[in-house]
Amino acid sequence: MIPVYEPFIDKTEKEMAFECIDSKWLSGEGPHVKRFEREVARYTGVKHSVATSSGTSALEVALHAIGISSGDEVIIPALTNIACAISVIRVGAKPVLVDVIPENWGINTEKIEEKITSKTKAIMVVHLFGHPVKMDDIYPLAKKFNLKIVEDCAQAFGALYKGKKVGSLGDIAAFSFYGNKIITTGEGGMVCTSNTDYATRASSYRNLYFGQEDKFLHSKIGYNFRMSNIQAAIGLAQLKKIDWIVKRKRAIARLYREELPGLSLNLENSDSRSVFWMNFVLMPPDFPYSAKEIIGVLAKNGVETRPFFQGLHVQPALINVGLFNKESYPITEHASENGFYLPSGPTLVDKEIKFVCEKIRNLENITI
Q1: SS (H, E, C) the chain
Q2: What is the pTM of this model?
Q3: 11-239 fold
Q4: Which homologous superfamily does the CATH classification assign to the domain defined by 242-365?
Q5: pLDDT 10s digits, 115-148
């Protein structure tokens, strides 16, 4: 089976992990964590990075750090991982949905202003599938309505917008280092910001707000969202490969476009450098088979795929708590119904990609 995503792991990660094990410091707050934070900040182009236990916790920490709390509203795209909505709910705020655009699957900036109220405090931009959002369309809105910009960079580590790394484009950002992300620590995340106050609050919140003078006097409610030292060691090894990984990911995307010229594949804007987290196919609505049926056929031929995210407005967990009405998000719905991911890990070889493309080109000849 050709996996939908396999991380690039070799002896470098083993050596770094054993270095950490030999140090006997395996848990959070260790020297590898601090070094990983410094290296991610340097790479991303921000002053501060705060390591967390996951990308989801990084989003929550980021929202807390900028002061989002009960009664506030945060605008988020309808097509994204449910973690975006959950993180908003966890800090007591309300997620407000806006549809996406098919050009780069970013939030539709033309639809944002109509969703802004006196309670709106932030816009969460999601660089979905590794494609940077057009930030020049976000900045005027944020300035006009005095809104904070939170970047969800879970799928976009290393992507560029007008020469600047994602994670440095807003007030604060969150990354994920889950096993199928651009770089991985197994599980893990990072909060990035150039605001020292935000970084201080983020660091305290993810560490139970331990006291500065008396360690075991806690001034506020926080959580244990720490990254372990051994995870950070693996992250440091991954960072050494980031340039190769990004180059390989872009080469894989280019080969898919060459092999499947007639299909709707993910493209990048001229002002951006995408990292193509996942390459995907968006089948035309009149295609004789559904995306679900095609996923099943490809699996029988040894090709692992994944369906798109379902829109947040159809998530039972969110509907059941009374968050969303029956408003339609047509682009999100079209993508959810007709899209699926192709194998996209950096370890893929060209022969495997061409095999996948051959099976897709032969879809019209199949019987389901």
Answers
A1: CECCCCCCCCHHHHHHHHHHHHHCCCCECCHHHHHHHHHHHHHHCCCEEEEECCHHHHHHHHHHHCCCCCCCEEEEECCCCCHHHHHHHHCCCEEEEECECCCCCCECHHHCHHHCCCCEEEEEEECHHHCCCCHHHCHHHHHHHCCEEEEECCCCCCCEECCEECCCCCCEEEEECECCCCCCCECCEEEEECCHHHHHHHHHHCECCCCCCCCCCCCCCCCECCCEHHHHHHHHHHHCCHHHHHHHHHHHHHHHHHHCCCCEECCCCCCEECCCCCCEEECCCCCCCCHHHHHHHHHHCCECCEECCCCHHHCHHHHCCCCCCCCCCHHHHHHHHHEEECCCCCCCCHHHHHHHHHHHHCHHHCCC
A2: 0.96
A3: Aspartate Aminotransferase; domain 2 (3.40.640)
A4: Aspartate Aminotransferase, domain 1 (3.90.1150.10)
A5: 999 999 999 999 999 999 999 999 999 999 999 9
